[in-house]
Amino acid sequence: MILILLSLIMGFIGLNIGGMIGPEIYIYLFGIVGVLSPGLFVLEKLYKHIEK
Fold first, then answer.
1. Mean pLDDT (10-residue bins), the chain, 52 residues
2. What is the pLDDT of residue 3?
3. Which of 1, 14, 32, 37 has the fewest CB within 10 Å, making it most exposed?
4. At what angle do helices 24-51 and 2-21 cross, to 10 degrees?
5. 33: closest CA among 2, 4, 7?
6. Cα–Cα distance measured from residue 10 to residue 1, given in angstroms and rounded to the nearest whole number
7. What is the spatial distance between Cα 23 and Cα 44, in angstroms, rounded to a whole number?
8. pTM for this structure?
9. Using an 8 Å Cβ cutoff, are 10 and 34 in contact?
């Protein structure tokens, strides 16, 4: 549940940053990065935990 909320918040922040920069493509790029970053962070932590 927390991961979903983080994804939504980070996506919103990414959309705002992309909107300030300029062209529409930046809105999509920063939004996607914002949505995917919490999930990728958790997957990396799991991978490092399993690797040990």
1. 88 91 89 90 92 78
2. 87
3. 1
4. 140
5. 7
6. 14
7. 31
8. 0.75
9. yes
Query: In the chain, how many domains are there?
Result: 1
Q: Which residue has the tokens 């939504």?
A: 8
Tell me what pLDDT residue 12 has: 93
Tokens of 5: 């909320």
Amino acid at 45: K
Q: Which two tokens stand for residue 32?
A: 């996607």
Q: Which two tokens stand for residue 40?
A: 């990728």
Distances, alpha carbon 11 to alpha carbons 21, 30, 44, 47, 52, in Å: 15, 8, 19, 24, 32
Residue 1: strand, helix, or coil: coil
Residues 38, 10 contacting (CB under 8 angstroms): yes
